[in-house]
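thought: user wants a sequence for this fold. calling inverse folding tool.
action: design(structure=
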């Protein structure tokens, strides 16, 4: 007899909104506990699956259920302001899966343009 246990609700560090700086590398981390077999985690943004995430699995103290942690590394740009990332998890006990979202609040370094117009200096 094999007992299947669905994953807990996925938790994204910093959710529901995270403040990021444009042009800096960040890790989005999603964590799911209590699943048997271990849960799979997939990242999405704007309906598109995101590639390049790394996942690790570890057994919980009971030696039966597992914890899965997925890390997606990316560098936000000004176009990512308000963008949502979705962490979706599932396993054999819950094929339809569960998901959690995080919204990006991206700040950027201000850019300043100086212009010097030559002017004649008059003495006196």
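)
observation: tool returned 124 residues.
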């Amino acid at each position: 007899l094999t007992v299947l246990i669905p994953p807990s609700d996925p938790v994204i560090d910093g959710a529901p909104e995270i403040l990021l700086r444009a042009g800096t590398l960040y890790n989005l981390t999603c964590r799911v506990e209590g699943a048997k077999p271990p849960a799979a985690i997939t990242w999405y943004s704007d309906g598109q699956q995101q590639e390049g995430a790394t996942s690790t699995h570890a057994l919980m103290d009971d030696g039966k259920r597992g914890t899965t942690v997925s890390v997606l590394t990316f560098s936000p740009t000004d176009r990512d302001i308000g963008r949502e990332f979705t962490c979706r998890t599932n396993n054999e006990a819950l094929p339809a899966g569960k998901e959690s979202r995080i919204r990006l609040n991206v700040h950027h370094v201000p850019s300043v343009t100086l212009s010097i117009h030559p002017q004649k200096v008059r003495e006196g």
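thought: summarizing for user.
answer: Here is the designed sequence. The beta strands are 11-12, 17-21, 26-35, 40-45, 48-49, 54-59, 66-74, 84-91, 94-107.
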